[in-house]
TrEMBL record:
Keyword Cell cycle: yes
Biological classification of the source: Eukaryota, Metazoa, Chordata, Craniata, Vertebrata
Catalytic activity entry: N(6)-hexadecanoyl-L-lysyl-[protein] + NAD(+) + H2O = 2''-O-hexadecanoyl-ADP-D-ribose + nicotinamide + L-lysyl-[protein]; N(6)-tetradecanoyl-L-lysyl-[protein] + NAD(+) + H2O = 2''-O-tetradecanoyl-ADP-D-ribose + nicotinamide + L-lysyl-[protein]
Full protein name: NAD-dependent protein deacetylase sirtuin-2
PROSITE patterns recorded: SIRTUIN (PS50305)
Catalytic class of the enzyme: transferase
EC number(s) recorded for this UniProt protein: 2.3.1.286
PANTHER family with a match to the protein in the record: NAD-DEPENDENT PROTEIN DEACETYLASE SIRTUIN-2, NAD-DEPENDENT PROTEIN DEACYLASE SIRTUIN-5, MITOCHONDRIAL-RELATED
Molecular function per GO: histone deacetylase activity, NAD-dependent; metal ion binding; NAD+ binding; NAD-dependent protein demyristoylase activity; NAD-dependent protein depalmitoylase activity; tubulin deacetylase activity
Region spans: Disordered: 1-37, 349-392
Keywords: Cell cycle, Cell division, Cell membrane, Cell projection, Chromosome, Cytoplasm, Cytoskeleton, Membrane, Metal-binding, Microtubule, Mitosis, NAD, Nucleus, Phosphoprotein, Transferase, Ubl conjugation, Zinc
Swiss-Prot/TrEMBL cofactor(s): Zn(2+)
Feature: compositional bias, Low complexity: 1-20, 379-392
Superkingdom of the source species: Eukaryota
Length: 392
């Protein structure tokens, strides 16, 4: 699916009016509550675009390179790192990016008799006809989930006390498997980690093992209390993003000292616009296969500012490291003096996952108790978060 079609993008605002089960909790995070931060955002934007504020934004990186970023990270100026990640950080874990050509997601859909391909991730269609989604989920359910070097690099950031938050577009739960806690995460497009009954009066929560068993039994998961369909907490088309996304965005992006953007082409809104919410001096490092997030005319019309700037003569804070996310994180870890620590962490954690998954025969029986395995399904763009935690 094209990234622009990401579920949730249509009614991206924190507003009511969607049929999302989260709507009720969205109302307390509305934009009105954030007047001050909006003013700050506008002020920053104006001073940047109009060249107000004299000498321009402070330059905190000595040089616009990975080395420059690593020196900044080791300084006492860098206390809060925010990561923004997408499908590119999970591809080396064997989880396909369904937006990439060749993964064949939509080509496989013909047998489901859908009115149009995206219907499979449309909440209105799902409520009437959930079978195609669960059939596809079974077909696409990955056999094993091993977080990547990049995921464990974020875990190291957390252990070093540097990680303010990880904003992820992925629904594969690999951040959690790697050891990030719910409070470290904003799962912007939701997650397979939890599921909820669609019955508005019920909303009972179910865990991943329960959902996996239903999926592999080819059963449409039904609530054991009210018999309504149970849906993984991923964001479908027609649903709003988790309220947590909008509420934390307000405070996190004012505090961030370094923005680390990894494995995302920054084309799904409103997620992509987050890069423009950081303070004017905050350095932004992109680790990705190609440059992205640069000037976007449409975005600037929406007031999102000029995007990332790696190459112009005005560039002063943005760094692009092009290549594989794991290699980029390994290179950064080396510059930070964390190379051995990262390698050992990956080795230890992967060994633990292997040990667990060897006990019951992997991939076979649905009824066994496999390790906590994330499910990646409908395009990493359709995800829905655990914003509903504790609502049950
Ligand atoms: Zn129920």
């Amino acid at each position: 699916m094209a990234e622009q079609e990401a579920p949730g993008a249509a009614d991206a605002g924190p507003g009511p009016g969607s049929d999302s089960p989260d709507s009720d909790s969205d109302s307390d995070s509305g934009a009105g509550a954030s007047g001050e931060s909006e003013m700050e955002f506008l002020r920053t934007l104006l001073s940047r675009t109009l060249g107000l504020g004299g000498e321009g934004p402070e330059k905190v990186l000595e040089e616009l390179t990975l080395e420059g970023v690593s020196r900044f990270m080791l300084s006492d100026q860098c206390k809060n790192v925010v990561c923004m990640v997408g499908a590119g950080i999970s591809t080396s874990a064997g989880i396909p990016d369904f937006r990439s050509p060749g993964t064949g997601l939509y080509a496989n859909l013909a047998s489901y008799n859908l009115p149009y391909p995206e219907a499979i991730f449309d909440i209105r269609f799902f409520k009437k006809n959930p079978e195609p989604f669960f059939a596809l989920a079974k077909e696409l359910y990955p056999g094993q989930f091993k977080p990547t070097v990049c995921h464990y690099f974020m875990r190291l950031l957390k252990e070093k006390g540097l990680l303010l938050r990880c904003y992820t577009q992925n629904i594969d739960t690999l951040e959690r498997v790697a050891g990030l806690a719910a409070e470290d995460l904003v799962e912007a497009h939701g997650t397979f980690f939890t599921s909820h009954c669609l019955g508005t009066a019920c909303r009972k929560q179910y865990n991943l093992d329960w959902m996996k068993e239903k999926i592999f039994s080819s059963l449409v998961p039904k609530c054991d209390q009210c018999n309504n369909v149970v849906k993984p907490d991923i964001v479908f088309f027609g649903e709003s993003l988790p309220s947590r996304f909008f509420s934390l965005m307000q405070s996190d992006f004012q505090k961030v000292d370094l923005l680390l953007v990894m494995g995302t082409s920054l084309q799904v809104q409103p997620f992509a616009s987050l890069v423009s919410r950081v303070p004017a001096k905050t350095p932004r490092l992109l680790i990705n296969k190609e440059k992205t997030g640069q000037s976007d005319f449409c975005l600037s019309l929406l007031g999102y500012g000029p995007g990332l700037d790696f190459d112009s003569d005005k560039a002063y804070r943005d760094v692009a490291w092009l290549g594989d996310c794991d290699a980029g994180c390994a290179a950064l870890a080396e510059l930070l003096g964390w190379k051995t620590e990262l390698q050992e962490l990956v080795k230890r954690e992967h060994a633990a996952i292997d040990t667990k998954s060897q006990q019951p025969p992997r991939d076979s029986a649905a009824g066994s108790t496999p390790p906590p395995q994330p499910a990646q399904t409908p395009g990493s763009s359709s995800e829905k978060s655990s914003g509903a935690e504790g609502k049950e």
